[in-house]
Amino acid sequence: MAGTSNKKEELRIGLIGCGFMGRAHSNAFNRVANFFDQPLVPRLVAVCSRNEQQTQQFADTWGYESIETDWRALVDRNDIDAVDICVPNHLHCEIATAAAAAGKMVLCEKPLAMNSQEGETMCRAVEEAGVANMVWYNYRRVPAVMLASQLIQEGKLGRVFHYRANFLQDWTISQDVPQGGAALWRLDAAEAGSGVTGDLLAHCIDTALWLNSSIQNVTAMTETFVKQRLHQSTGELAPVKIDDACAFLCRFENGSLGVFESTRYARGHKALYTLEINGEHASLRWDLHDLHRLEYFSHDDEGRLRGWRSIHVTDHDGSQPYMDKWWVPGLQIGYEHTFVHQVADFIDGLATGEPAAPTFRDALATQRVCDAVLESAESGSWINVLQ
Ligand SMILES: NC(=O)c1ccc[n+]([C@@H]2O[C@H](COP(=O)([O-])OP(=O)(O)OC[C@H]3O[C@@H](n4cnc5c(N)ncnc54)[C@H](O)[C@@H]3O)[C@@H](O)[C@H]2O)c1
């Protein structure tokens, strides 16, 4: 890590992938030092995607100093400390293992991998190389969700009975939406691994494992409503092999019951991620469309005042996570800030030696649940989740 004029050290970033997440991460790397006073400051050294002109345009927009069009060239550079993987899922394992072998820290988008076998390979690669690693399950860093975690840790809910989560979208209802290629790689099992299970439920599972406890076993059903779509690489109709919708039940290690649902066929819903947890003393509810509010019901409240409170998470006294770093009480932040928080936590982890979660190993637990869900949908049986 090279020194800088303001005495802070640099975390030299090499980003791979210039799409949705490439933008979200670049914004976070650029913003973090403006709001978090930390010993390391990200420097955007290089960005890589396959099209030279688009990559240069991206570099100019976000402030990257140089470009590559082959990810291997980026991984091999000796002026980069951390490789950030923002490409479709089928590339995560190969890039992460190469980056770890080259001694780089590795930040990887979710889901960790196409399946648990790949995920295990990735964990071994970063652990054997001894490099810092993290997976971008960014919803943990929504202040309201972090507050939920704190309340649960403090025992406010008591024994937990139920955990339920949904992630609903509607963008693939038309059978004219093709599969494969830019952004639509999500519909192509060869690049995505799975459909809503790895794309959307993985977020719900990561949050659940973190907030509640590990998942012991699952029973699931999936459906592919549109069986054939034009494939953009061949121009021909091809079978659709991803799950368009998935619902599963599970048992958590703490004895609670889980109900999860995800689909891209819920007309009217764009990114409705909701979760609700019911405990002995209290319940919590959160909704991505209103991400700055945490709803809370406490049975300990005086009877005549008992009811759901809607907590606007913006206090600056340090009692509500992350908010003292931003504006003034009452003013909320948004989606992009979750990535800023994740970078800040990663840098904190480097400074303290306490790695920011989820690490690759943490994210492998989510991958194992996804695998069990897909296996159960295939077999029609309850499946134990490998721990
Ligand atoms: N954390 C989240 O909430 C969240 C949200 C969206 C996507 N994701 C994850 O982020 C990853 C990327 O998704 P996205 O929505 O940004 O995709 P995208 O389609 O918007 O962008 C993908 C980028 O990867 C590049 N790319 C593809 N193949 C490449 C190669 N061989 N070499 C170099 N670059 C290559 C493409 O050119 C494009 O710039 C996926 O793993 C996805 O699951 C996470």
From TrEMBL:
Top-level lineage group: Bacteria
InterPro entries the record matches: Gfo/Idh/MocA-like_OxRdtase_N, Gfo/Idh/MocA_oxidrdct_glycsds, GFO_IDH_MocA-like_dom, NAD(P)-bd_dom_sf
Domain Gfo/Idh/MocA-like oxidoreductase N-terminal: 11-135
Pfam families: GFO_IDH_MocA (PF01408), GFO_IDH_MocA_C3 (PF22725)
SUPFAM superfamilies for the chain: Glyceraldehyde-3-phosphate dehydrogenase-like, C-terminal domain, NAD(P)-binding Rossmann-fold domains
The UniProt record lists the keyword Oxidoreductase: yes
UniProt keyword terms in alphabetical order: Oxidoreductase
Sample GO molecular function, one term: nucleotide binding
Domain GFO/IDH/MocA-like oxidoreductase: 148-285
Mitochondrion keyword on record: no
Protein name: Gfo/Idh/MocA family oxidoreductase
Organism of this sequence: Aeoliella straminimaris
Lineage start: Bacteria, Pseudomonadati, Planctomycetota, Planctomycetia, Pirellulales
